[in-house]
């Protein structure tokens, strides 16, 4: 009897199909990660029951969206009524559009810097910007050593998109009433603009500051359990008694400088990381203004109103000891956040910088003026060196400054000169110069000079023919020994590099040849010279006799590597399509050279 019952149950189970399952179990199966969107689409077409299970606003399509693009769920709330099928389609189409645009950049902009109107396609996208950005992040996070050119241009596009959004947020911030402009938020906006590819947000920075504030409360509670700051939430109270305020500041100094070991970065003062608030929190060091923003924020959350003081050469905070709002500079104690929270008198402030200053320098400044000084520090750092990294910092800080003061002639002129020097965006240079002339006609001499040379640059660019194609089979190239993509080592300086171009002889001018002492080389300028990307981020022009094969090749961490190469094989780089067009016979030689090097090495 039991056997008969078992057979009947088995037969019944065989007759069960997907539509006979309970709704929750059916959903669980359809949400399985082995099924793709196409599978769900086909299932939904089979019958009404399955179509209802796969309804556009239901759990199945939401789970499909989450599995494919998990980072995008933060843009939705559980209360939203969302057609997940439509969102899936929109994200998929945005991905295809992003891939199309990224793929086109190499062909369009290989020979020049991406022009100021080069991102016009992106600014008129018909899809949500966060969908487009998400696809760019997917490209950047591709595993392995392939897709280098795609990653290079995806990074440039993402950099542009995020900076545009941050500038918009900064302008909105500056439009608010002064009492709604958080010093911390302003510092975060500057940090984000200069580091647009880093994961920096006000919420996470504020959470770290709150964590420090809680530590201060615990220290405060141990010393005075009835202190009003112990039980209050951030910013809820303003403590009027000076002695209670002093207890807060003592507890802050204990936590920041004794427990957490924050300190002013005297050894590496001119490092730009000291100006970025998220780096200050990570490295626990900074410069006077960045540490002051942190110190002021914590104090205000604990009920102590400190105010920023734009003191020359050394940013300070002031703490009122007399009547609130007093204009007497001697009614205040001045706090040096860079100097472990040391409290100073007016005379001690002057000792700090070594000279006397007038009373106006002890006055309180606005949040906009604090940002101006932070950006000014970054501007000065950008001017200190002539490297790609410093030029980028100079460009970013000029953008920020002009977002705050769009009609500042001095900085507009600096921006025009910078673009002119870098040979980029000549059309934008003309627009800037026209704006300067309208603001200040007395600048006509400098403006006229730059206009003339910029127009000449534009005309030369129009006259340029296509890039020269270099064939190794040409008789004039017979002395060229090395090829594109080889990992080399400089015999004299020892740096590792990769070749991305070559000339049969030195093509630089007489002044460069003299300055670089090329004539002291045995073969002088009459030998092949190579364009190389160096591991320190620089681009150099090296003589053939100074280069040798690197017996232990490794990736060259240069920011422009993807502009020229699509893949690192482990022994050499493969030129991308645009570079290969210019050196059509190099790929075969590179592969055979590498094979010979390593086969002889094994022997």
From TrEMBL:
It comes from the Eukaryota. SUPFAM superfamilies: F-box domain (SSF81383), YccV-like (SSF141255). It holds the Pfam family YccV-like. InterPro entries: F-box-like_dom_sf, F-box_dom, Hemimethylated_DNA-bd_dom, Hemimethylated_DNA-bd_sf, SirB1_N. GO terms for molecular function: DNA binding. Residues 479-576 form the Hemimethylated DNA-binding domain. This is F-box protein 21. It comes from Pavo cristatus.
